[in-house]
Design a protein that fits this description.
The complex is a heterodimer of chains A (189) and B (529).
Chain A (H helix, E strand, L loop, with lengths): L1 H37 L1 H9 L3 H23 L4 H28 L15 H33 L5 H29 L1
Chain B lengths: L9 H5 L4 H29 L10 H20 L2 H14 L8 H23 L13 H5 L4 H28 L12 H33 L12 H35 L6 H14 L15 H29 L8 H24 L1 H7 L3 H31 L5 H28 L13 H31 L48
Classes of the chains: A mainly alpha (189), B mainly alpha (529).
């Protein structure tokens, strides 16, 4: 009884933490919205230079990972396998992201001094890639923490529900990022 | 046996999960920061004794002013009451053994200390000259201070804030004693709850803003960089989206403490309990929608300014509800002028002054004249120092017997309370006039015609400095020589007074049952005299 109450308390704590996370990413999305509003063409031009294949593969991997974890929560007998699958798919996401970063750097997309702009609005195009790199890097950092939590849960510690909530949140952030980074600009073309 | 005697090793303190011990760790840390920030303020006031600036170069003055702001805001005012009295009292007030997440509480202290080390390191390696607001592109393109270390300090302190806020919200929801319904909660808890919600929802925005700022400063990849089309105003929007609600983080706990003090020392239930309780929530909610009043002259659209002006007036309503309800509580009360009550009176007067002058600044036309002058400096010091620090000392004296098991020396405490009030007014009232006359803030020098008022202000600051050192001295004295405190020296009704002073490690022998509201004063509970 008391243990159950404590586990529920942990879950409430995680919900509150996620509320705080929403505001954390919210600030970044707000920056995106402002520049999308100020420089729609240049932002779209930036978005067209991202790699749709990498983005889509990663969206698939992460959604599947989240599905696996939800299955584990709903089916406690298979919790261990489900968490292993979720963690494996999450690690695959990070591997793909690393490949993608490599390609981005080779194509001069990193918004530092060597940024290779395509449009006359080079500054605004750079703003897109500042958003792209900041958002994906912070998301990847969350993924790493999430993988740590999964490993912790696999050792039988902590509450699986807390880990699952966090992992779903990381998934949701990607669900928001994926269209903004890979799809919106392409629609405008 | 009590929580202080339960283990004497350094380890038993540094690895404790007892909220009471963590509160004391925090108390020691923020006291150090308070005196550090205070020293910077003293140097600033010394410098302004003469129009040319007696002490500091323009550059050094800017860095000192930034140090004062950063240390006082993030390392004293924001944490002050929540992490010390909140940490100590919240579980006791709700009849719990500890906070909901005791280990997270300890982690939050370590984060706070690490954050403080980063900030202090940055400050002593040369500091930052941007002011505590770090406006881009001044901070990113034109300033060459130790921005990264200081920003890292504030960044880490943010995690500590979020952890504390989260802990309080969950604790108040989950760990209340049987019978302790929401409307039976002491008003201190309502105000801490509102504070915690702000900490949870505003701090992360600052965290992200600092990340973006440091990326721009260190790697030249800047979303605020006007050279590539970035919008510097965007920085101000994001910064104040945190920092204005943070102003309420700095005052709401003080409002809560004052509600407790006014009731206990007038021996009457707080007048209009539900209004006072919900006004805390209203301040927290409306406080999220007034940030634009920091940007009236920054080039924001007039329509936005009108809206922010209106909302700023609106947030005065719940604040005024509190003041009027405290006065209603005092009416026909049996008022005792103990030191905590003197601090509470000081708080009410100074908070009212600070609040009303805030309305001058919320008015668009008046703000054009007053913005960037000492009027603003005086206004927010009336709230932050006159208000919050008074409430902090009031609460510290009120709960001191519970925290330490010792009584503080009453006459010394009254003298300090009165001295703080006078020293404060002498320091900051002249600044209203200076600002009205047009003296700009943030300069190390000023035109000679402002000297008399500046000397008055500096004289007040020296009284204030002395008055702040006094409690440090006699409270420390009382630890060894003060009279032993009984469980309930004030005849106060809260649950924290139902256990011994200082409390045992688990707070209560048995979980208390609550059968009545928070401010019931039975006649037989009258204290001596």
């Amino acid at each position: 009884m008391a243990e159950r109450y404590e586990a529920d308390t942990d879950v409430i704590g995680m919900w509150l933490f996620l509320a705080s996370e929403v505001l954390f990413f919210g600030a970044l999305f707000f920056v995106y919205l402002v520049y999308q509003h100020l420089y729609p063409q240049a932002m779209a031009a930036g978005a067209r230079r991202t790699d749709l294949a990498f983005g889509t593969i990663n969206a698939t991997l992460l959604l599947t990972s989240s599905l696996a974890m939800s299955v584990g929560i709903g089916w406690p007998d298979r919790l261990r396998q489900a968490f292993l699958a979720a963690g494996g798919l999450g690690a695959a996401f990070l591997a793909v992201k690393t490949l993608e970063y490599g390609q981005d750097f080779r194509e001069g997309l990193f918004p530092g001094v060597h940024f290779a702009a395509l449009t006359p609005e080079a500054g605004a195009e750079r703003l897109f890639f500042i958003f792209y790199f900041t958002a994906t890097a912070i998301h990847a950092a969350h993924m790493l923490i999430g993988l740590g939590l999964i490993a912790y849960a696999l050792k039988g510690k902590g509450s699986p529900m807390v880990v699952a909530l966090y992992w779903s949140f990381v998934d949701i952030v990607w669900i928001c990022l994926y269209p903004l980074l890979y799809l919106v600009g392409r629609g405008a073309g | 046996m009590n929580y202080l005697t339960d283990g004497w090793t350094i380890r038993s303190w540094l690895l404790t999960t007892d909220h009471k011990r963590i509160a004391l760790l925090y108390l020691a840390s923020i006291t150090a920061f308070f005196f550090l920030g205070g020293t910077a303020a003293a140097l600033i006031r010394l410098n302004l004794l003469s129009p040319a600036g007696t002490l500091l170069s323009a550059e050094a003055y800017n860095r000192m002013m930034t140090l004062h702001g950063v240390i006082m805001v993030w390392f004293f005012l924001v944490p002050a009451i929540p992490v010390t009295m909140g940490n100590f009292i919240v579980p006791l007030m709700i009849g719990a053994r500890d906070l909901a997440f005791p280990r997270l509480n300890l982690v939050s202290w370590y984060l706070f200390v690490i954050a403080g080390l980063f900030a202090v390191y940055g400050m002593f390696m040369g500091g930052v000259d941007t002011g505590w607001t770090f406006y881009a592109p001044l901070s990113t393109a034109f300033s060459h201070g130790h921005l990264v270390a200081v920003a890292a300090g504030i960044f880490i302190a943010g995690f500590s804030s979020v952890a504390t806020g989260l802990n309080f919200v969950v604790t108040i929801h989950r760990l209340r004693a049987p019978g302790l319904t929401w409307y039976r909660l002491p008003l201190f808890l309502w105000s801490l709850y509102a504070t915690s919600v702000i900490l949870l929802l505003a701090t992360p925005v600052l965290t992200m803003t600092l990340i973006l700022l440091v990326l721009e400063f260190s790697f030249g990849i800047g979303v605020f960089d006007p050279a590539i089309g970035g919008d510097p105003l965007l920085f101000q929007h994001l910064f104040w989206f945190y920092s204005h609600p943070a102003v309420y983080v700095m005052i709401l706990p003080g409002l809560g403490v004052t509600s407790e003090l006014v009731s206990v020392y007038a021996r009457k239930p707080v007048f209009g309990y539900k209004f006072v309780a919900w006004s805390s929530i209203a301040i927290a909610v409306i406080g999220f929608f007034v940030w634009g009043h920091h940007m009236f002259v920054a080039g924001q659209s007039l329509y936005a300014s009108l809206l922010f002006s209106f909302l700023s007036f609106l947030v005065a309503v719940p604040s005024a509800i509190k003041v009027f309800n405290w006065l209603g509580t005092l009416h026909k009360g049996r008022i005792r002028f103990d030191a905590p009550m003197l601090y509470a009176f000081g708080f009410i007067g100074l908070f009212t002054m600070g609040g009303l002058t805030g309305l001058f600044l919320a008015a668009l036309a008046a703000d054009v004249h007053l913005t960037q002058t000492y009027f603003v400096v005086a206004h927010f010091h009336y709230i932050m120092v006159g208000g919050m620090v008074s409430a902090y000392f009031g609460g510290l004296h009120y709960w001191w017997p519970k925290i330490t098991g010792r009584m503080y020396p009453e006459m010394w405490a009254r003298a300090a309370a009165i001295l703080i009030f006078f020293g404060f007014n002498l320091t900051f009232f002249p600044q209203f006039i200076l600002g009205y006359l047009g003296m700009p803030r943030r300069y190390h020098a000023y035109p000679p015609e402002f000297q008399i008022l500046n000397v008055l202000s500096s004289a007040g600051a020296s009284i204030l400095a002395l008055a702040y050192v006094l409690p440090f001295g006699y409270l420390a004295w009382s630890l060894l020589f003060g009279a032993r405190a009984p469980a309930n020296p004030w005849g106060a009704p809260g649950l924290e007074w139902k256990t011994q002073s200082p409390p045992i490690s688990g707070n209560f022998e048995r979980t208390p049952m609550v059968t009545e509201g928070p401010y019931v004063y039975p006649p037989e509970a009258l204290p001596h005299g």
